Amino acid sequence: MSEVKAIKEIEKCRILLSNDDGIMAPGMAALERIAANLSDDVWVVAPANEHSGAGHSLTIHHPLRPVKLSDRRFTVSGTPTDSVMVAVNHIMADHPPDLILSGVNFGGNLGEDVHYSGTVAAAMEGTLLGVPAIALSQVWSDIDNIRWETAEYFAPGLIRKICSAGWSENVLINLNFPDRAPENVSGVMPANQGKHKLGDDLVLRDDPRGRPYLWIGTRRVSDPSARGTDLKAIDEGYISVTPLNVDLTHGVSMKSLQKIFPISGA
Fold first, then answer.
1. Which of 81, 151, 186, 266 could form a Cys-Cys staple with 237, CB 3.0–4.6 A?
2. Segment holding 42, helix H or strand E
3. What's the N-to-C CA distance of the chain in angstroms?
4. The dihedral of CA 80, 108, 174, 100: what is its sign?
5. Is a pLDDT exceeding 80 seen at residue 250?
6. How far is Cα 110 from Cα 200, in angstroms, rounded to an integer?
7. Which pTM was predicted?
8. 42-54 burial, b if ≥16 CB within 10 A, otherwise e?
9. Residue of 79, 10, 18 lying closest to 39 (CA atoms)
10. Domains, the chain, ordered by start
């Protein structure tokens, strides 16, 4: 069993912030306000530009350029994964972070979204580097009324409570905040990853020269009625809390394969 890491005195922590919407995104401003309620030692290392949907991608064919904007605030000309890797192994190498917070994402990261999400990937990279990490996302339906205040209101207390309890070293925590004002949030619900597919709606169009091209649409085929899932939690106005394991091995299938291919002498 992997070791459970708990953070009992978060106010003494060095916290790294990153995201996939870019360092100038309103969600990053919200995350900085959240982190300011937790510790005085907060660093920001985030992509210079938006990388939504980048997943856990690395930049390997171009150089990365970290740029210092101010004390403890940097941009990186790469992906969210690049940003966390550069932060932990270069910018903060002499004193790595104790906790990584990624977000607050512009939109939910529910169901299969987690496989595409740069926000989740930044937290996953932290987990792979041995740093406890939490991804935060704010669900919205009206682009002119995104409830960043909901994430800001609840996140500090949730982060303190989750960190105090701790979680396994190969796991990251995925938080999603519902599209509700703080006073209308139903509560907090530990939830499994639901079914929520992105990208089935490919929009075919022609450019001005008559050549066809495709847009990946936003339609999601989902079932918010499945109890115990992050989709159901959000649908009912709860904050969903989902532990995600970076080890994708399926235990039951592995046992079946071991029966088919027994190891000689085992």
1. 186
2. strand 41-47
3. 22
4. positive
5. yes
6. 16
7. 0.92
8. bbbbbbbebbbeb
9. 10
10. 4-194+223-260 (3.40.1210.10)
Q: How many residues appear in the chain?
A: 266
Q: What angle do CA 49, 55, 60 make, to 5 degrees?
A: 70
Q: Tell me how far the alpha carbon of residue 148 is from its chain's centroid.
A: 16
The Cα 58–Cα 83 span in angstroms is: 10
Peptide bond preceding 221 in cis form (omega within 30 of 0)? no
How many angstroms separate the Cα of 104 from the Cα of each of 21, 189, 240? 9, 19, 14
Residues β-bridged to residue 142: none
- Cα–Cα distance measured from residue 29 to residue 256, given in angstroms and rounded to the nearest whole number: 48
Instruction: Specify the amino acid at residue 205.
Output: R
Q: Do 195 and 222 meet the contact criterion of CB atoms below 8 Å apart?
A: yes
Contact between 191 and 199 under an 8 Å Cβ cutoff? The reply is no
Q: What is the pLDDT of residues 95-108, one digit of tens each?
A: 999 999 999 999 99
For the stretch 14-23, pLDDT in tens is 999 999 999 9
